[in-house]
Automatic annotation (TrEMBL):
It comes from Caballeronia fortuita. It comes from the Bacteria. Its EC number is 5.1.3.1. It catalyses: D-ribulose 5-phosphate = D-xylulose 5-phosphate. Catalyzes the reversible epimerization of D-ribulose 5-phosphate to D-xylulose 5-phosphate. The keyword Manganese applies. One of its GO terms (cellular component) is cytoplasm. CDD domains: RPE (cd00429). The active site is at 46 (proton acceptor), 190 (proton donor). Keywords: Calvin cycle, Carbohydrate metabolism, Cobalt, Isomerase, Manganese, Metal-binding, Zinc. Pathway: Carbohydrate degradation. This is Ribulose-phosphate 3-epimerase. It is an enzyme of class 5 (isomerase).
Length: 241
């Protein structure tokens, strides 16, 4: 399949964000240092509360603990309900971007403002069955749109192909917004991203890629990240996948 070329997307603008959900939690500092040394652009930090999603993971204390180990942005993905109480704690713990699910907040506009007021970039996350219409009236407060390509809660699930259509729709909204305002919004994808599907996902419009098991499940993180970048280079040059 010929891959579409995105004139505004260059390799420098593709971000690979390993999810530490699949890392060895007994040596998290070493794991994040290693994955950044291997070429990671962001660290993706999955926060699950056993209410909004049926799993329980890590909180602000762990964010604060890994912060001194890496210089790259920490991309916090909140799968929690309610959201607002915990936002300042993550900002203090060194998060750079804080994203949440519209279903987790009673007042989406307020939560977006709260995140930005604490000096972080604000992201809105869309589950496979959640409509992008939540973006309609808040684009000015959104710095990142995160499309879930699995149902949230667990690493290691398979990519849901319908996410490609949603990415195309989100890309169209983001491009139209950029043409109108000049402001860039990141388009990130999360769930089941691997070396063998990342090019197709990028061609659908994603510029930032969360990958947990694909990276931390392997011994050689650099080999995986290099292979992902090689696939992304095909998209940039408009080559065949
Ligand atoms: C799922 C998480 C993802 C997950 C990705 O709820 O938000 O970030 O860890 O893991 P993989 O890449 O293994 O699907
Ligand atoms: Zn995530």
């Amino acid at each position: 399949m010929p891959l579409r070329r995105y004139p505004h997307t260059s390799m420098a603008q593709f971000h690979i964000a390993p999810s530490i959900l699949s890392a060895d939690f007994s040596r998290l500092g070493e794991e994040v240092r290693n994955v950044v040394a291997a070429g990671a652009d962001w660290i993706h930090f999955d926060v699950m509360d056993n209410h909004y999603v049926p799993n329980l993971t890590i909180g602000p204390l762990v964010c604060e603990a890994i912060r001194p180990h890496v210089d790259v942005p920490i991309d916090v993905h909140l799968m929690v309900r309610p959201v607002d109480r915990i936002v300042p704690d993550f900002a203090k713990a060194g998060a750079n971007t804080i994203s949440f699910h519209p279903e987790g907040s009673d007042h989406i506009d307020r939560t977006l403002s709260l995140i930005r007021d604490h000096g972080c970039k604000a992201g809105l996350v869309f589950n496979p069955a959640t409509s992008l219409n939540y973006l309609d009236h808040v684009m000015d407060k959104v710095d990142l749109v995160l499309i879930m390509s699995v149902n949230p809660g667990f690493g290691g699930q398979s990519f849901i192909p319908e996410a490609l259509n949603k990415l195309r729709e989100a890309r169209a909204r983001i491009d139209a917004y950029r043409d109108r305002t000049g402001r860039e919004i990141h388009l990130e994808v999360d769930g089941g991203v691997k070396v063998d599907n990342i090019a197709e996902i990028a061609a659908a419009g994603a510029d930032s890629f969360v990958a947990g098991s694909a990276i931390f499940g392997k011994h050689d993180y650099k080999a995986v990240i290099d292979a992902m970048r090689a696939e992304l280079a095909k998209v940039e040059s408009g080559a065949q996948a």
